[in-house]
Amino acid sequence: MLETDHDERVSPRRWRAGAFGGLALVAAWLLVPMVSTSTPGPDVAVGLPADVSNAQDRVERYVREFGHGVVTVSWSCDAPLTAAGDRRTVAVVTSDVAPCPEAFAAASVIVLLDPSVSLDPGLVGEDRRVIDGSGLIPGGPGARIGCAWWEPFDGGAVGCEPDGQVTVRDSTGALTEAGAERLARLVVAALSTP
Length: 194
Hints:
By secondary structure, the chain is an alpha/beta fold. It has three helices and seven strands.
């Protein structure tokens, strides 16, 4: 046997340090691709005018559930929507903001909630889609419409009332819970269809 002037055994302290260092290297190697390829922010912006802004939380939750990062912005004729990089912009258009189409010109998808509003054909092009949501959420205070398949029959608290109708707007014209649910579904459908 060869004689050496040091002990060839590795101390437990050195062994643990080496094992933890190796684990840290493996963890870093696995995490770097995930960090470097993540998107820097939301890939969808949803513009909500003031008269439907009470649907913000529900719209954000639904869009996130379908795998998109989302930011909602309030917009009006005085504060137009702006496009931000590669972000898809969805504009919810009601009668309050319909008179000023230049305010939502940056939108790639328009969800139209007022059947009395007709958009200039120049606003609808190959790169912009218009979804007519007035069949699901009619305008006007106290608006009611026939129940949809997803609305529970609960006597009218949130879902379907005994007469087979659901109230989608309250007496002030703001969206009810059922109206907010329908708007969230419309936005997700607009994002999901090519």
